[in-house]
Amino acid sequence: MTQVAIIGCGVVGAAIAYELSQVPGLQVAVLDRQFPAQAATKAALGVLMGVISHKTKGRAWQLRQASIQRYETLIPELELLTGHHIPFNRQGILMLCVAAELGSWEKLVATRASQGLALEIWDGAKVKSYCPQINCNSSTWAIYSPQDRQVDPVSLTLALVEGAKRNGVKFFFGTQIEESNFSSASSDAESGSGDRRIRQITFSGGISRERSHLNVDWLVVSAGLGSLPSLPTETSPQLEFDIVPVLGQAIHLKLDRPLGNTDFQPVITGNDVHIVPLTGGQQATEYWVGATVEFPAIGREIEAAPALLEEVMQQAIAFCPALATANIIKTWSGLRPRPEGRSAPIIDYLSGFSNILLATGHYRNGVLLAPATAQAIRKMILSSG
User: Fold this and answer.
1) Between the chain's N and C termini, which has fewer beta carbons within 10 Å?
2) If you average pLDDT over every residue of the chain, what do you get?
3) Which 8-state DSSP code applies to residue 180?
4) What backbone phi and psi angles, to 5 degrees, belong to 295?
5) Which residues, other chains included, contact 196 with Cβ-Cβ below 8 Å and sequence gap of 6+?
6) In which band, very low, low, confident or very high, does the pLDDT at 334 lie, cut at 50, 70 and 90?
7) Other CB atoms within 10 A of residue 91 CB
């Protein structure tokens, strides 16, 4: 059996574990300092902007396309396997825009049509007809993407963990990596990987609270902001990038009745502000609104700025005035991992090592790109053999 260890059990790590659990001959273990679906995953809105993204070629589009396609089979597959309900809004994304932006959208509509994908341009009258909750005028336009989705990130991650467990994956939560053993290996010019291999990791914690050893043929690091600290000490000098935190705040609202038409509850977005109906968009009376994008000041820890969340809320109210009467259930924030010196996400070999893979730095697209990332890691492991 090939031994695979995964560090990190957010949505990306859980997706990798589930994907690898379906490969005969792999024995998979997942380690995390926390319980699953914490940190960035717990704070995500789960808006899957694939078709409506302006990415049209190269890796950025290929990852989005693969993930959007996989989600259509992944959600029912997980629900059948685990019995978990995963709120999954299939009613698309409606993005508000102005007339000056229509030229670029018309080009994207044509590109998507050539790819066999649907994207529609709506004028203000059509927007008002389908979404009467939106504050429209003669200059209001929108792009409707019926094939994009929204998923509850926590429910998804927990279902991925349960599905992976049922397929034989072992999980160790509350653990800390303490030591790693390495050996030299011949250079693999074809894969571009290095000439060293990790052979064993030692960790402590978990249920037994004792030190345990885990032999590994592959180590996958997918711990988001914890990825670099969790790497073996001697790998640090070879890193050519850093991962910095970008804070995002959001707010959970409840209304007396659904916004607009009860049978049409897409995600509504504009100016990078999202209004997300919950319960999979069916008879929703609760909504998430977010999210801010807050960078840390140089030399200072990042702290949530209440004024920025208020700006997002006021923008959402400008789109949907009925939100002004909503009750606030809670506000929350989370840190997203943004790589510096590399494009997001990082799905690659760790420089100098032939069996350490990085699946991290997804920034604001961890939920969107989790399935495609898992497929990429699976391909890298299987192609090496």
Assistant:
1) C
2) 91
3) E
4) -95, 145
5) 182, 183, 184, 185, 352, 353, 354
6) very high
7) 19
